Amino acid sequence: MRVIHGDIDKRLIDKGTACALGFFDGVHRGHQKLIHKLIEISTAYGIKSMVFTFKRHPLKVLMDPNAPELITSNREKAGILKEFGVDIVNFNNVDMDFLNTEPEFFLSNMIDRFNVKAIVAGFNFKFGHLCRGDSSFLKEYGRINNLNVNIIDPIRINGIIVSSTVIREYIKNGNISMANKFLGRCFSLEGSIIHGMERGRKIGFPTANLSIDKDIIVPKNGVYITEIDIDGTKKMGVTNVGYNPTFNNSYISIETHIIGCSRNVYGKHAIIYFHKRLRDEKVFKDLTGLSKQIDDDKQSAIQYFECLKGSTRNT
Q: Around Cβ 62, how many Cβ atoms within 10 Å?
């Protein structure tokens, strides 16, 4: 898969592209339905599949206080789209000139630049000046210009439309099981492992402290059963998100006790996959109480993954 930031060598798309439009934050089940349609069309036409997305959320450009925290970084987004078989991911710059572009010009320019033969978009995708471009606009544009336009209907779970907005609420409220259900995979955070206060090491439970992008959403404070991927190897973990109230921290940290890992992981890139929320943060009177609770959390994580492994074997 190629990741580009604007134009592309025309020789790579001489037969054309099928283009999916959207921001695709989280690449959730609704997005996945759209991507499957994109791949289906590109395969049938014998052309490249391309996701046309944006480096920044448009509301960030507008400095809107309601600009959302993001479920996925651009790096994560590209990795997930690669797994689905997308040929090209195009991260476009977003500025005020772009947001003020008339939808007709946006489409004609995109079609010319990327030899677009088909467009796929979600039911709620909007674009162009004053958001005049929407699904109805796209369908009419396709009819007039003899362009294959596919608008993808929403997916509902328990009667609720799967959307990035809903998933963010689940994450912020600590409802990881529902967030994962809507995502179609485990919610994850990625970043570099940095040095912390090393308090866990002193009580026999060393932790890996994750530094993440400031625009990425963080789950509700508490303790979670997780997996952590370092250098392509996954290990079970228990992750604390919050202020470590026993030590009265003034900042939020993301600390994972990696079960069965004794090697030095400082400076490594890591991905933490959130499986289940165990409990709220607690204040302990002494380190003995804290140590016992961490051990209990560790045993809960081990039991969880044993059950998960057993259910996988039985399916």
A: 13
pLDDT of 251 > 90? The answer is no
Taking the mean position of all CA atoms in its chain, how far away is CA 165?
12
Task: Read off the pLDDT of each residue in 163-177 and give the average, rounded to a whole number.
Answer: 97
Average of pLDDT values for 88-111? 93
Distances (CA, A) of 300 to 69, 128, 307, 311: 30, 50, 11, 16
Residues forming a β-bridge with 269: 192
User: Which residues fall within 8 angstroms of residue 281, CB to CB, at 6 or more apart?
Assistant: 221, 222, 223, 240, 242, 243, 244, 245
**Domain range summary for the chain, segments of one domain joined by +:** 2-159, 186-313
Tokens of 196: 């912390």
Q: At what angle do helices 164-172 and 176-183 cross, to 10 degrees?
A: 160
Measure Cα distances from 171 to 27, 217, 270 in Å. Answer: 15, 8, 20
What the block records as the tokens of 177 is 């099981």
Sequence-distant (≥ 6) Cβ neighbours of residue 191 within 8 angstroms: 210, 211, 212, 213, 269, 270
User: What CATH code is assigned to 2-159?
Assistant: 3.40.50.620
Question: If DSSP codes are grouped into helix, strand and coil, which group holds residue 246?
Answer: coil
Average pLDDT over residues 204-219: 88
What class has domain 186-313? Answer: mainly beta
Closest to 244 measured CA to CA, from 190, 203, 303, 189:
203
What SS3 class is residue 170? helix
Q: Please give the Cα distance from 52 to 43 (Å, whole number).
A: 18
